[in-house]
Every structure is written in structure tokens, then in C-alpha cells.
Amino acid sequence: MQTTGYLELGVSKNVEVVTRGFDVKDQSLAVDICTGANDSVVKHFSDYNDMAGERVLLEVGTYKVKVTSNPSDKLEFEKPTFYGDKDKIVIKAGETTQTAIECFLTCVKVTSKFTKPVQDKFASCVAKVSDATGSYLEYDMQETRAGYFQPGYLLVDLTLTNKEGLTFHMSKLIEKTEAKDHYHLVFDLVDSGEDNSGMDFDITIDSDPTNDENHTVTIPLPESGYGQEPPLVKVLEDGKDSNGMVSLDKGDSRNVMLNISSTNIGLESVTMIATSSLFDEHKISSSLDLLKLSEESKKKLAEIGLEVPALDDKKAMFTLVFDNLITQLPGGTHTFVLSARDEMGHETVQTISITVNLQIMTHPVVESEVWAHFATLRGYVKNASEEDKASYKFQYRKFGTDDKWSDVEGEVTVGNNGSSNVTQVVTHLDDGTKYEYRLLQNGAVAESKEFVTEEAVMLPYGDFEDKNNGPWNEKNSYWSSGNNTFTPDLCQSVTEQNNTKAFLKSRAAVGKFAAGNAFTGSFALSGMNGVVTLGKPFTARPSMFKGKYNYIPQTVDKYSGHIAKGSFDQCAIYIVLLKEPMALNTANQETLNWKEYYADRIIAYAELPASENMLTNGWSDFNLKLQYLKKDVKPEYIGVLATSSKYGDYFQGAVGSELYIDDFELVYDQTPTE
């Protein structure tokens, strides 16, 4: 009796608040097929594009499908996130069930505009916009892209420098932001009297299916003193000035006090936005004006240890004491954003972050420390020591399953200089997979956290078998060749024994020397020279670059220079992972010294060493280890280049040098290597 059926899934994005023409293929969407009351994941696909149009084999039953953007710990421009789900999907024996899921924006869109009067008056204007995560994006006068933030609130820090070098700073807290809101921040100068100038900070929310509203907030901008300074906010920890970052162990006491004053103008409001499980547990609003509290709110705050004093004189000091509240906070990080506004509209914003450490805690991973097949797990053990580390243990398993927890092999590392932080590297993970992990000590178990491994993305068309997608095809969208515009036979496909490879040959062409080349990127003409833009979108982090090559160099004669006349020609094969593409202009110094010229863009690179770029003994394998210059930064582009004459960019090399390349491949290590 047949007990299985098929699910065929279609996914679309609702992009009314994003941009027209935004396609599902533009972004990675993870798919989880779940069952049971707890939505246990039975099948996970890290990218819908990999399964689009395919049928998924499932046991007969009822399922729920969740589609979500792959998570990221950092904010980026033009990176919206989406979510959609559908339940009660019935799979019948021997049948194919088709279903479609529409995904909606789960974040807040923010765009900006600095009007011409602002641009004329100021040499520099930068708005730093952040959300409850603490991450931020910077909008300057030239920024036209949209940023996407977590719902809850937005904090806008504005820094302006006029043409005389005088700098002004102000902040604005935007409360109760919701998914699918679009905040358009317009910065404009307004006339606000003889003694001060102002800035009109205009915020609009675009119409969409759920939101249709507009409002404007004005922030005065003092050009000089005039006795109109913004409110003064000071945080004291144990009687000393503090930056508001507080860390303590559960059960310990700490004196934390916030003093707010506006002696020259007077306070209008003190708004507090709390991100704390304690507030959720006691059903206290996360956003409160502490100067206009209801009796019920005052009572609830007092119950959790936060006594809010009355402010009879608006020019008096407003003091908030956190001592008793801290004793009731559960383990974890609790954030309080306080915005003090005076009666003229000046605002000062201060964040107080209180981390309460339990005896043991599982800490979130650092995004850059999660690779395709391994990750660094983090935790906290009170009074951790080398002597006791045998009792510390991390466990992990695939997220959403009932699998048995697996112990991480190897030793736990204890932090230096008395730090109670502990780490351990877990290896041999599946790529593009969500895991959960936890920390244990002598039977005590900390709450679990999650992470998603990177995709082990392959190099598109690296085997050169597809004759429609090789560098010899000018219309190809991935591989390119710089000289096919002039001499089509510099890069060709060659098939031998049912195996296709790329063939690159150096020739004399158009009165100059031309080297055969193939690369991931694009090519354009600039007069008689060419510009190679090296780099295609790519966000994975491989450890090795391997392939095969057969180089048949000729002797350099007429076109000598970097290689002396009478010497063998040299080929080049290299790979770079980049933050931005590299533009290599023929005969410019950046072409020769690309590692130095583009050092700020290069995340990692590897190249065929000089000892191997003149081989003449037939086919050889190369296996190049990528050298990571910035391990804490994710790449955004990949550049791979091969050429039959290393100095072809300088119109130098040997006519007739031939380079065959095949089976280019990226390798992802199962364990970290130095």
C-alpha cells in the first residue's frame, strides 16, 4: 500500500512596499515543511530557488509550510526580509498536492532625502538609523538606497557639519514602527526665529494594504549656544559616569542611576522603550512617557522595582533609579532606550543595556564565525577556569527536530584575563542548515540558541561543459572574456573524449598583443583599452580553489617587458572574494598590483604561485588555499581569472602561448584551518 505523496510549492513575494519588479529569485528564501502541534521540521530547504518546480516526497498526512528570509545579524541596504506560511496542507497517497504561499515584508523600510537648502548649507550630513538590535545604517546626502529594519522603534542620530567646520548633533526616537511601514526621512531647513534655526525632519509612511498615515516631526538645530542646549542625560554606575553598558551576575547588586535635566528650557517628555522579558511577563507597555504615566502603569512599574518620581518643576532634575529593578531582571540582556525632549523640541537619547549573567548561559554566535561546515559556539560560565573546563560542554542538533543532542568534540576554550566566556568549535555540519545548541555544566543546562550555516555555493559553470555559458560566449551572463570583442578565437571551447574545457591563446591582434583570458565579471571598452570588472555576486566563504590546467608557453620576443625577451611566457590563475568588484584598466598600475591597490575590498584571495605558472608537462592539478585577510567580514562578490599571458594587460607576453583550463571548483573545509 502506497503511503507517500508529493508536494509542489510555489512562492511569491508581496512587494508593494519594497519596489516594483522585485523577484523571488533576487533573494534566498528558506523553506521548512513542518508537522505536528509543535511544527517539527521534517524537511528543510535553505533556498527555494533550489527546489522551485520540483516535487517533494512526503509521508501521507497534514503539513504546514513556512517560508522565511535567511536570517542575518547585520543590517544592509536593499536587503528586505519576508515571511509567509500555510497550514492544513493535505498530502494524499500517490497524488501531487500543489500549493502557493505569498510572503510579506517583515521589516520596516527607511529611505532618506536631504533637501537642497541643507546640502547648500552643510559640508556633511549623516543620519545614523538604528533599531532595537543596536545595528545601524548610515544615510548621507548621496544615499538613495532603502534600508530595512526590525519593527519596534527607530533611533535617528543626525550629525551635521557646516562649512565653517562647526558640528551639530541631534537624535530622534520614532516609536511603534511596524512591519511594512515605509518611513521616508526628509531633512529640510526651516526658519524658526532670530535666536535659533531649525531643521524640519519630515517622516511619511507610504500607503500599503495595512498602513495609510503621515506625520511630521520637527527637530530644532541650534547654530550656536543662545542658552538653548538640549537636555542633559547622565548615567551613573556605582556613583561614576557610565556609558550605559551594565553587566553583572544574577544575584549581584548594582547601583545604576539616570539623571535628566533641562534647566534652561524645561522637560516636556521622557519616553522609555523597554526590550525586556520582565516587561512582557508583567504585561507592561514597552513604550511609556515617564512624565505622563497612568496610576496603573506607575503601580506595575513599582511592582518590578522601578519607582518613577513625579516632576512638579519641569526645570528640575528627573532621576530614575534602576537598583531594585536590576534585582528582578531574569538572565539575558535588557535594553532601555530613553528619549528626553524639552519644550523647544530638542531631544537627547540614551540607551541603557543591562546584561544579567546566570551561572551558565548560552550566548549567541558571532555571524562571521559561522561557516558552511563549522561554527564557533559561545557561552558564559560564572567564574570559568582552566581547571574546571572539563565540566563545560556544548551540545547541538538540527533545529526543529527531536534528534538526540550531540556533544561537541574537542576541548572548550576559556576566555583570557579572567573572562568567564567559553567557546567551542563544532565541525562537520551540513551547509545551509539551521542548528540549535546549548551549554551544560555538571548537569545544569542553559537555554538553547540557534544559528544557520552558510551555503557551500559552487562556482557556476566552473566545469566549462555548457557551451552556451562559457567565456567564449559574449552574451553569457557569468563568465566573460576581455578580448573576444577584437579576436573571437582568443577564448574557445574544446571538446576531447566527451569532456569540454576552455582554451585560451595569446595572439597579435589589432596592432597590439592580446592574451586569451576568462573571468567572472564583465568587459567594456575605454578608447583602445579595455576595462575588466572582476566580480560577480557571491556571499559564501570557501576554503580552497581547485582545478586543472595545461599550459604551453612560448618564448617572449617582440612583446617583452615584465618578462625578459628570450624567457618563457607565464600564465595566471587566481581567485578573489570581494566587498566590491575590482575594475582593472588595461596598463594601469592597479592591474599589476591589485592586491595592494584593492586591499580594502579584498576579503580573501589565492593565486597560482610563480613556481607553477610556466609548467610544460601537460595537464596538472592545482589546489589553492584561500588566504583570508578579513575573517570577520562576509564577501559580496567573487572574481576568478585565468589568462594565457600574465602580463597581457600590459600588451606583453609570447604570441602562441596556450592555456587549457577545466573543472574549476570551490572546496569548503569541514574543520577550520589557519
Helix and strand layout, with pairings?
Blueprint: E1 4-13, E2 29-35, E3 40-45, E4 55-59, E5 61-69, E6 82-91, E7 96-105, E8 108-114, H1 116-121, E9 122-130, E10 136-140, E11 147-149, E12 152-162, E13 167-177, E14 182-191, E15 197-205, E16 213-221, E17 232-237, E18 240-242, E19 245-249, E20 256-261, E21 267-275, H2 277-281, E22 287-289, H3 295-303, E23 318-321, H4 323-328, E24 332-342, E25 347-357, E26 360-363, E27 375-381, E28 392-398, E29 406-407, E30 413-414, E31 421-426, E32 434-441, E33 444-445, E34 449-452, E35 479-480, E36 491-496, E37 499-505, E38 507-509, E39 512-514, E40 517-526, E41 529-534, E42 536-537, E43 544-552, E44 572-578, E45 582-585, H5 589-592, H6 594-597, E46 602-607, E47 620-625, E48 627-628, E49 637-643, E50 658-667
Parallel strand pairs: 1-7, 8-14, 19-25
Antiparallel strand pairs: 1-4, 2-3, 2-5, 5-6, 6-7, 8-11, 9-10, 9-12, 12-13, 14-15, 15-16, 17-18, 17-20, 20-23, 21-22, 21-24, 24-25, 26-27, 27-31, 28-29, 28-32, 30-31, 32-33, 32-34, 35-40, 36-37, 37-50, 38-39, 40-41, 40-49, 41-45, 42-49, 43-47, 43-50, 44-46, 44-49, 46-48
Describe this structure in words.
With 674 residues, the protein is mostly beta strands. It contains six helices and 50 strands. Strands 35, 40, 41, 42, 44, 45, 46, 48 and 49 form a nine-stranded antiparallel sheet that branches. The protein has a seven-stranded mixed sheet with strand order 3-2-5-6-7-1-4, with no helix packed on it. A five-stranded mixed sheet has the order 11-8-14-15-16. A hairpin with a 2-residue loop joins strand 36 (491-496) and strand 37. The longest helix has 9 residues, at 295-303. The two termini are 54 Å apart.
